[in-house]
Specification:
Order of helices and strands: EEEEHEEHEEHHHHHHHHH
Strand content: 5-15%
Shape: globular
Number of domains: 3
Radius of gyration: 27 Å
Bound molecules: adenosine-5'-triphosphate, magnesium ion
């Protein structure tokens, strides 16, 4: 039940028209902005009942500053932020076609391709920030569509600190950090790692659900993979190329997952050619899926030996895996100096890391070549400038002689 009521004027400005829905921490309303000729907007009001204390509000203010400078055409960006009686609220464009939740089981491959380009693009953008912005709550309810059929990612830039604070302030006893069904395996570890790849896993789970009308791992999410489960077969529901792309989003190991950049590429190719670039689907897993409503979840039993073998027995190993991953991303983005620094960070953890040593040597050669090239360029420009100066002074003296 919503806390606020229709026709109520919120913050002396917004007339509430209809409650669109309620999340863990907020109510979303379709409202008319009376200051803007009754313009229809969506109003997202946090802690709508009791409001928040000053400390929690300060965290909100700080996070809004981060969101303010994020710009991508497929991010649903708030146009205004304010606080009313301790209740932080955001003014958002109203997405009249609602969330993709209603598309589950009815999504064709062209629509999936569009989602790959638009939402994959938004993820690519968030993950390329320094430090990367991790969404943490990718699910159908947070992907909204406008009447022109464009998709937008909402609720980005909410950190775990803010989630914890909201949980405490609202008197809830369990932190909501993503819906379990969409949570990647690494989030179930004792020392959990929240990675950009965790968003890719959730996105893959969502695409799986949109296509098959079922969740790949029921309500248990990525923890199933840690128990030895495989990605269920999708061959009855979509073409092998698409199944392979989704399978790669759902890989147990974050390093092997697809990136936002690759998702965009796959989507664009499909929209241009009507074919998926990914190859043939691997061997059928033939596992049964569990529907969203399945309440009979087996007791979650995360196999620790299995996770250790994937993530390494110590933090050290885990950190160096993540640093390798970071360095690879930096190299792909042509940020060689940053990658170079990252390889040295890896050597601080493990001075014998041969891959890091090789990469440093390769980069050394690249830098030497770049320096030599730059030296030649500088010499070329100096010679060119000297010749131009000589020619110019000759022309000037010829003109002066001709005049005298
Ligand atoms: N700008 C908007 N336009 C149209 N519908 C919206 C808009 N923003 C949110 N919604 C819808 O309003 C409902 C409530 O959203 P809200 O973000 O509060 O909760 P949630 O995303 O379902 O869960 P949570 O945020 O707790 O993870 C959702 O169904 C969401 O799709
Ligand atoms: Mg939401």
């Amino acid at each position: 039940m919503p806390t606020l009521t229709s026709n109520q004027v919120f913050a002396n400005r917004y007339r509430l028209i209809r409650n669109i829905g309620s999340g863990g921490f907020s109510e979303v309303w379709l409202a008319a902005d009376q200051m803007a000729g009754d313009l229809e907007i969506a109003l997202k009001i946090y802690a709508p009942g009791q409001g928040l204390d000053d400390q929690a509000i300060q965290i909100f203010r700080d996070e809004y500053k981060v969101v303010f400078y994020l710009n991508h055409p497929n991010l649903l960006k708030p146009s205004h932020f304010d606080i009313n009686n301790g209740r932080p609220y955001l003014v958002l464009p109203y997405c009249a076609s609602g969330s993709v939740m209603k598309m589950t089981g009815k999504t064709d491959e062209a629509t999936v391709a569009k989602l790959l380009v638009q939402i994959g693009g938004a993820l690519q953008y968030l993950h390329s920030q320094d430090p990367p912005v991790i969404h943490r709550d990718i699910k159908p309810e947070n992907i909204l569509a406008d009447i022109s059929g464009n998709y937008y990612l909402s609720d980005f830039g909410i950190s775990s600190k803010l989630r914890r604070t909201l949980t405490k302030s609202m008197g809830r006893n369990q932190e909501s950090s993503g819906t379990t069904a969409f949570m990647a395996p690494e989030l179930f570890q004792a020392k959990r790692q929240v990675l950009p790849e965790s968003d890719i896993f959730a996105f893959g789970t969502m695409l799986y659900e949109l296509i098959t009308d079922e969740l790949p791992f029921g309500q248990i999410g990525g923890a199933m993979l840690m128990n030895g489960a495989e990605v269920p077969d999708m061959s009855d529901s979509c073409s092998p190329g698409l199944a392979e792309i989704i399978g790669k989003c759902l890989n147990l190991n974050p390093i092997n997952r697809t990136t936002g950049t690759e998702l965009v590429k796959h989507g664009k190719t499909y929209l241009e050619t009507g074919k998926w670039t990914a190859g043939n689907q691997k061997e059928k897993a033939g596992r049964k899926t569990m529907a969203r409503s399945d309440e009979k979840n087996p007791v979650m039993n995360v196999d620790k030996t299995l996770t250790d073998s994937y993530y390494g027995p110590t933090d050290k190993t885990q950190n160096s895996i993540l640093l390798h991953q970071k360095a690879n991303t930096l190299l792909k983005q042509n940020l060689q100096k940053e990658a170079w620094k990252t390889y040295f960070e890896i050597l601080d953890i493990n001075p014998d890391d041969s891959e890091a040593i090789n990469k440093i040597n390769e980069l050394k050669k690249v830098f030497t070549k770049q320096k030599a090239k730059q030296k030649w360029k500088n010499t070329f420009w100096i010679i060119l400038a000297t010749i131009s100066a000589i020619i110019l002074s000759t022309i000037i003296s010829i003109i002066a002689n001709a005049n005298s």
